Every structure is written in C-alpha cells, then in structure tokens.
# Entry
Amino acid sequence: MTQEKTCFERIDILQDNAVRCLSELMPKIEKTFRDMEITIQYRVKTKESILKKCKLKNLLAEKLTDILGIRVIGKTKDFDIILNKIFENFEVKELEDFWFHTTELGYRSFHVLIDVNGFTVEMQIHTAVSSAFALLCHNFYKNNKNNCCTQEVLTELKKSLEKEAERLAAEGKTSMFIAADGKPVGVVAVADTVKEDSAAAIATLR
# Structure
C-alpha cells in the first residue's frame, strides 16, 4: 500500500512539473511559430495513462518522455522550416522520423524530444490528416486490444480517409474524422458558404 501511494505521489510531481513546463513553453512556442500557419495542441498525460504505459513498457514513470506532449500541425511543405525552428530555439535531445519511416500501421509524424530544465517534452509534427489518423489509431487500439485484424483495418482506413480528405480539400472544404466508441466510422467536411453580398464586400475593400 505504501509503495503504491509513493508511485502516485511521484506521478503527481511529474504532472505538476509538466504543467509548469507547459506554462513556460507556450509563450516561446507561440513566438517561435508566430509567422507560420500552424495549429498548436498539447496535453498532459492522465495518471491512469501514465500507469498503463509504465506497465506496458516496464518503465518507471520518470523514464517516460511524453508525459507532456506538444503537437505542431502544419503543411507538409513547411516541415523543414518547422523542424529547423525547433532545433534553433529549443534544446533537442532526439529526433525520431516516423514520416519517411512509417510504422506498420501507417502512422506518420516527426517526434522531437526536447529538454526544458531537465524535463523531457515530446513535440510531434503532423499534418491535419496525420493528426486525425493518429487519434483514430489511439482510440482504435484502446478499444480493440484483442482484434487480430487491427493492422489490416487501420491500413485500409488510412488509405480511404486520406483519399477522401484530399478530395474534400480540393473542393475547399475542411475535413473532420468521426469515431464512435473508439472506432472510426467516417469523414465529414465543412465549408463557408459564399454570401450573396460577398462580391460587393470584396469590391468595397479594394
């Protein structure tokens, strides 16, 4: 009982460190990418998620490198610029290339581990499509741990979602991927409709 409590206390400390690290990092991240069209997302792992990963990887919580995760979502053509900015402005410990060396399930991203006052933070570089697919992979794994067809299903899902998202993007629409009970079910798109007075408004601005 004492050992379990000590484990929870250590995780509480790590989560507190992650929150403090995040408050320090965000202004610097916003300044670093202020001239780029990107989206920044972040999360601090829950206590339950930390315990599960420790058990899965057989690691102490202090050895985990993604208790604080930062996701930079941009366009593929800007990846070199994004990575250069990270290397120029942060203390990089490690770079993992899952973009050109995808996992067997089709997951794609660049993972960059940075050091912030002794605390390791994982930064992931994604496109909108790869970010949505990563979320679907995570939910699918969580709810289908014993599904022997997981790889085949996710591979086909990736192909169909990316194809549909590209078609919708060509029409000027923003894609959103939908999951039910952790399982991917489809993709929908949204777009601003052109108002009748749009032409007149643009003419006035000119």
Observations:
- The longest helix spans residues 2-32.
